What we know:
Layout: E1 26-31, H1 36-48, E2 54-58, H2 66-79, E3 83-85, H3 92-99, H4 109-130, E4 135-139, H5 147-160, E5 163-165, H6 167-170, H7 175-185, H8 210-219, H9 221-234, H10 249-255
Parallel strand pairs: 1-2, 1-4, 2-3, 4-5
Helix pairs in contact: 1-7, 8-9
Amino acid sequence: MTQTSLEFPPGSAGPVDLPILPPPPRRVIVGFSGGVTSAWCAGWALRTFPREEVVLLFHDTKREHPDTYRFLREMADKLGHPITEQSDGRSVVELFREEGFLGNGQETPCTTDLKAKQGLAFINGLRRDLGPAVKIIKVVGYSAVEPKRVAKAVGRAHHDGVSVRFPVIEERITKQACVDWCQCAMGVKPSAMYEWSEHANCVGCVKGGRAYWLKVHEHHPEIFEEMAALEEEFGHTIIRGGDREHVTLRQLVQIGLKRPVRLREPITLGACECGD
Length: 276
């Protein structure tokens, strides 16, 4: 094989060094919801990526437990990172009335309008401000016992043109370990929602089942009564489950549960391994 040298025309400057283009900007968006797993994910993201790339994104439904707001503020302060809010501005009940539809266990316009759409609006804002080439990584605090939610999040990320990470699953972290990290490592007590609920969702979440609503009746009777009145106003029930008989919230209080309900991820608040 013969080799030939590249010749340049007389008077030309010869070979030109092409500039090395910088990588596209990147943002790592942590769904900072007020739960213990999302808080742990925030810490993971700040340890894993440059801090200037991390966004702790919160969507206010106007129905969060008051102590959840306290947890969010204290955790952000301990992490030394600000909360970025992107919210619709309407409360859950305002949304139901304006849309003329009461959310239930199978259809949740509150999740769509007050959270999913707000998240996409924030991403589109980043693309507008930083350019369409910006790389977006969403960090979601779902665990391995939530395969359906994980699958939906993967599908939504693909649709929105972003990447998604599930650090709790990747690192094989338990929900209890997230609780202990919040309490011991960070010194922040989890939201009082966890004293009676498996999740730190808004109080009176329409996705909750029968056991959850009985807990709402016990711990927040004023919200239970408001939602029971909405059932009468809209003419249908919140609790729905396949071919099971639909019951109103007030009927549920009368009939109760047929059998105890076991939590998928039970946790213990208070003392942890550090002894605090």
